[in-house]
Amino acid sequence: KILVQITCGWNDQTSGGIFVDSCVFTDRNTIAKDDSEFSFIKIAGRSTNIQISNSVFNGGKFGSGGAITKNYILNFGVQPSSLLAIEKSVFKGIDGQTGPFIRSNENGFNLISTSIFRGAKFLDDDNGNHAALLFQPSQQYSTIRLDTFSDIKNGSAILLDNSNENFVIIQNQFINIDAKTSLGGAIVIINPTATNIITAQYNTFENNKGLKAGAIYIDASVRAPKYNIYYDIFTGIEEIAKAVEEESEEEIVFF
Fold it and tell me: Cα–Cα distance between 214 and 216 in angstroms, integer?
């Protein structure tokens, strides 16, 4: 089930895309299976740009979808590049299911800023891979800045899974996150590629809890990415390990 789906967009980088401003989306569905898919907005077009601002997304039984799903898979050649920009918006009310607020697995640029993600209670199924923002293979460049993530249970705030990109997480607040079986309370990075450069700076981590790291978990045991983590504030971190856990001998820089 999809409220708005965009499947065109061969050359729409030169002509625009879709703009969503000052809208309210509310899902009143109370039944969903783990393998079902629901999205308020799904972008499935090649090189389709979308910009969302001043909008509210309430609830949603997303399953394998998300409040916003960005998904275009090209089986040959070079993946397309597109823009997903979200600002000054509110996402709230996930309750007892698996889908994230934002799911992106298309090659392109993501800019998520000045938005609020709160009140997400994922299914308590020991999956360990639930997150408010889920970035999967084929990313290119993402910036998460000036956002607030709060009151999240049974999942982390941000999950990067095999994302081949530069990723900047700057000046965000991560508050009251109990990720339970998720490896990291706020940020989880797994299966990175050797070209990854991930920067986390000027963030505040308050009252976060994860399985192996209270705030940030990095699994880079196979490849050689680079991480710069500096000028962050950690308070009230509970672990079942430490604030930042990094499973590799590759380069990681703290200041």
Answer: 6
Contacts of 15 (CB under 8 A, 6+ apart): none
- CA gap 46, 13 in Å, rounded: 10
Is residue 214 within 8 Å of 238, Cβ to Cβ? yes
**Angle formed at CA 178 by CA 140 and CA 163, multiple of 5 degrees:** 15
> pTM of the predicted model, to two decimals?
0.85
Domain map (residue ranges) of the chain: 2-254
Distance from C-alpha of 104 to C-alpha of 84, rounded to nearest angstrom: 9
Render pLDDT for 33-46 as a digit per residue (tens, 0 to 9).
555 778 888 877 66
Identity of the residue numbered 33: K
- Give me 223's structure tokens: 């490849």
User: Would you report the helix, strand and coil content of the chain in percent, each value rounded to 5?
Assistant: 0, 55, 45
Q: What percent of the chain lies above the pLDDT cut of 90?
A: 33
- Structure token digits, residue 102: 């934002």
Tokens 């569905």 -> residue: 29
Distances (CA, A) of 185 to 10, 66, 129, 219: 39, 20, 11, 14
Q: What is the distance between the alpha carbons of residues 116 and 180, in angstroms, rounded to a whole number?
A: 21
Token duo for residue 160 = 């990067």
* Beta pairing partners, 5: 42
